[in-house]
Structure formats: structure tokens, C-alpha cells
Design brief:
about 350 residues, alpha+beta, SH3 type barrels, Alpha-Beta Plaits, five-stranded antiparallel sheet, three-stranded antiparallel sheet
Length: about 350
């Protein structure tokens, strides 16, 4: 039996192959035990704390450190065998690629956790945190690019030449994709400057609706008529945008007209009637009401008041109640609203002349 185990196959004894296989199996069992017991126990432990970085560390160890450690152990076990130079070179390249792969993923995981934690500490809204996905996509792409450059350098390639070539190609691509790059830059402006967020009710060049999604290239707005409007980020940042959600109070001005048959005494009462109607609403703050001018067929009164909420429905309910109140008081005081009319006056002399002709 010992002679059989000492026999060589591809440069290694059978005993060496058995030891290598046993080492790989033991490493697999150890990893399974660590994930099943140690990691789960740590997860339960950190779930009771408010520190989110504990969760980040445990998740990073489970997803990246342990799998990479298992592969690295297997690589070391295999490389202790006598291997063909070509196979050894393939394994070396493979472990280099695997190392860079797990390293880049771990860096991206840490970056995302740190940025997300920073935003949560600042008590950013859930919409803002969801918007972070676009920023992370760009950051992850940059990290992957740097990881690729590092990999090529470790494999012995002339990285400087490659980067120079990519730089020339990048200039050509940038010139051909100016619009896309402009939208990408505008996305970062929207994210960091925060002119609007997901859920805001906006008016962008006549596109009125609620912001549903902010992407790297476009922003999607659900209009008040129901359809989805897709607008490029560049157009949004280069134009005037009304954000109604951030309105602290709403200014309302309206004009009503009464007929010229209204007496002077009643005209003096009208500003007080309107003021009482406005003040009857708790969310309304009266500013002024004046006789503003004499129209073609009406005496006009201009009124200004404020609604102390950005809620559009609350504003419409208050405005409706104010108008109804004014109408009821006008009706009870026999004050008539003006409307376009035309009155014809016939001269008395012409009437007498017509009468004499008939006689």
C-alpha cells in the first residue's frame, strides 16, 4: 500500500494528491462551519445594536472575505504540488483575477455603506437615499476601471501605454457623446444641489407633475393628466423650475366685480365682507382687499391672501369655502356680481318725433 501511495503521477505521488484533496475538503468544512455558526451568531448579536457599521463588516466578511480566503487556501494547497509551468501560470493569473475581483467588490461595498450611512446620519429622505443608486453606479464603474488597470499592471502589461491609448479613444468618445455626458453631469448637479427630489410636485417648462424617478440621463415626471413625461437632466438644470413642494405659503390674488348699480354704502362694506370670508378659514392669512378700479361693466375689488400650507388640495378647499361665503353674503345683502352687459338708451327727442309722426 505504501509503495502504491509513493508512486508518482504527473510529478506528484498519490499521497500528495490525497493530502491536497483532504486539505481542500477540510477547508470547505471549516468555511461552512464558520458561515453556519460564527457568522450567524455575530449577525444576531449586531442586529440588536444601532451601529450600522457592524452590519456592514459582517456582510463584507460573509460575502467577500470568507469566499476569497477559501479560494486562496485552495490555491496554496494546489501550488504545493509539482505543476506544469503552463498550468502554474494559469493558476497564478486566475488567483490574481480573483483577488482583484473580490477586492473591487469589497471596496464598492464599503463605499456604498459609508455613503449611505453618511446620508442616514444627515437624516436624508428615503427618496434621496434611493437616488443614491445613480451616484453609486458611477463610483463603482470608476473603481472597476481602476481595478482593471491594477490587474493589467500585475499581469505585466504596459499600463501607461494602454491608458494613453484609452485617453485618445476617450476624447473621441466624449466628443461623440456630449449630450450623454452633459446629462450625467446634470445628474450630479441635481443630486448634490437638490433643486428637486423624488416625490416633489414641480413645473418644468410647462411639464407639471410629480417627480417619480431621477436617472443618470433623464428624469421622469408623472403629469397631472396621468401620462409619464420624460425630460433630460440637462434641460431641467438649464431651465427655470418651480418646485411647489417646497412652498412654505401660497399667495392668492383674485378680483371680483360688482355692478355700477351698487350703492356707495354697500361698496364700502365689500372689503370687510371679503376679509371676514378669508379669515373664516384657519389656514388662510388675510393681506388686503381694495377697490382697485372701474371696469367697462364692473366696479372691481382686488383681494390678496395667503395659504399657510403647500398642500394644493387644502388650498382649493379653502378657496372654495371663501368664494361660497362671499357669494352667500352678497346674496343676502343684495349685492349683484357684474357680468358683461350692454344697455341701450334712446333719446327723448327722437321718441317724441316718432310719436308725432304716428299721429
Amino acid at each position: 500500500m505504501r509503495e502504491l501511495l509513493n508512486q508518482r503521477f504527473w510529478g506528484n505521488t498519490y499521497m500528495a494528491y490525497i493530502i491536497a484533496a483532504a486539505g481542500i475538503l477540510i477547508a470547505w468544512i471549516v468555511v461552512r462551519m464558520i458561515k453556519k455558526y460564527a457568522i450567524r451568531k455575530l449577525q444576531k448579536l449586531v442586529s440588536t445594536t444601532d451601529n450600522q457599521y457592524d452590519d456592514m463588516i459582517i456582510e463584507g466578511v460573509e460575502k467577500f472575505v470568507i469566499p476569497y480566503a477559501y479560494l486562496l487556501i485552495n490555491y496554496n494547497i494546489i501550488t504545493h504540488l509539482i505543476l506544469h509551468p503552463n498550468l502554474a501560470n494559469i493558476l497564478r493569473v486566475a488567483i490574481t483575477v480573483i483577488t482583484l475581483y473580490y477586492f473591487v467588490r469589497l471596496v464598492n461595498h464599503v463605499l456604498e455603506a459609508l455613503i449611505k450611512g453618511f446620508m442616514e446620519r444627515r437624516k436624508e429622505s428615503p427618496e434621496r437615499i434611493r437616488q443614491l443608486r445613480g451616484v453609486m453606479l458611477v463610483l463603482k464603474a470608476i473603481v472597476w476601471f481602476l481595478g482593471l488597470v491594477l490587474l493589467l499592471d500585475n499581469l505585466g502589461y504596459d499600463v501607461a501605454t494602454i491608458i494613453a491609448g484609452m485617453g485618445i479613444g476617450g476624447i473621441a468618445i466624449a466628443l461623440a457623446a456630449q449630450t450623454i455626458l452633459g446629462d450625467l453631469f446634470s445628474y450630479f448637479v441635481i443630486f448634490f444641489d437638490k433643486p428637486f427630489e423624488i416625490g416633489d410636485f414641480v413645473n418644468a417648462e410647462g411639464k407639471i407633475g410629480t417627480v417619480e424617478y431621477i436617472g443618470i440621463k433623464t428624469t421622469r415626471i408623472r403629469s397631472i393628466t396621468g401620462e409619464q413625461v420624460i425630460v433630460s437632466n440637462t434641460k431641467l438644470t438649464n431651465s427655470a423650475l418651480h418646485n411647489f413642494k417646497r412652498m412654505e405659503r401660497r399667495r392668492i390674488a383674485f378680483t371680483i366685480g360688482v355692478t355700477y348699480q351698487t350703492s356707495a354704502a354697500k361698496l364700502k362694506e365689500i372689503p370687510g365682507i371679503i376679509e371676514a370670508a378669508v379669515k373664516s378659514q384657519e389656514i388662510a392669512a388675510f393681506d388686503r382687499s381694495h377697490l382697485s378700479g372701474f371696469g367697462d361693466f364692473s366696479i372691481n375689488f382686488e383681494t390678496v391672501y395667503f395659504i399657510d400650507t403647500p398642500d394644493y388640495l387644502a388650498y382649493m378647499n379653502a378657496q372654495q369655502a371663501i368664494y361660497q361665503n362671499i357669494f352667500e353674503v352678497f346674496e343676502s345683502n343684495q349685492i349683484d356680481f357684474a357680468y358683461p352687459t350692454q344697455t341701450l338708451f334712446l333719446e327723448r327727442a327722437n321718441q317724441d318725433k316718432s310719436a308725432n309722426t304716428v299721429e
